[in-house]
Amino acid sequence: MSVIAYFDGLCEPKNPRGIATFGYVIYLKEKKLRGYGLAAKPFSKDSTNNVAEYMGVICLMEELSRLNVRGSVVRGDSQLVIRQLRGEYKVKAPRIRPLYERASELARRLEVTFQWVPREENEEADKLSRVAYELVRKGIIRSVGCGEVHGEDERVQEEITHAVADSFHEL
Questions:
Q1: Is the pTM of this model over 0.85?
Q2: Mapping DSSP to helix (H, G, I), strand (E, B) and coil, where does residue 21 land?
Q3: CA 116 to CA 112: how far, in whole Å?
Q4: N or C: fewer beta carbons within 10 Å in the chain?
Q5: What is the DSSP letter of 40?
Q6: Are 133 and 10 in contact, with CB atoms under 8 Å apart?
Q7: Bridge-partner residues for 19, per DSSP?
């Protein structure tokens, strides 16, 4: 089964010590799954863009594991995360090490191939990370973790869009 997935993370309004969120999209045959969540306690030292990127790829791969999918192509626009997971860059930051180890273990088990893509080719995952940011700001998402996964359900889409309507117009 050929599966392509995308992830992204952000930390706003400042990096570090902002609100770190992530989003991901999994294209599974005719189906599309979307996920997003809070990567770290807001405004903490662990709340960084790189932590958000790693939580995005980890949660994406945990969903692939739950679906029992092997041999996926996972794409992201973070050169640091992609190159670390491909073994091209060393992991120097102590707070990243456990995230890297978890992501690497999942990638080995799931036989994932990582590909870097420019930001323009990662728009949907980027939009989902921004949706998560707005949901955290509005107090709708409060817990750190992988959050919820949504399919193509129109009702879910309407709820997401309504929740962030003030600052986010198109998912």
A1: yes
A2: strand
A3: 13
A4: N
A5: S
A6: yes
A7: 12
Structure tokens at 9: 């993370």
- Report CA Rg, the chain: 15
Q: Identify the sign of the CA torsion 146, 150, 156, 160.
A: positive
Burial, 146: exposed, middle or buried (Cβ in 10 Å; 0-12, 13-18, 19+)?
buried
Chain segment 103-140, per-residue pLDDT in tens: 999 999 999 999 999 999 999 999 999 999 999 999 99
Q: Mind listing the domains of the chain with CATH numbers?
A: 4-166 (3.30.420.10)
114: nearest Cα among 164, 154, 64, 152: 64
Helix/strand/coil for 92: coil
The two tokens of residue 11 are 């930390």
Model confidence pLDDT, tens digit, residues 32-55: 999 999 999 999 999 999 999 999
Contacts of 106 (CB under 8 A, 6+ apart): 58, 61, 62, 64, 65, 112
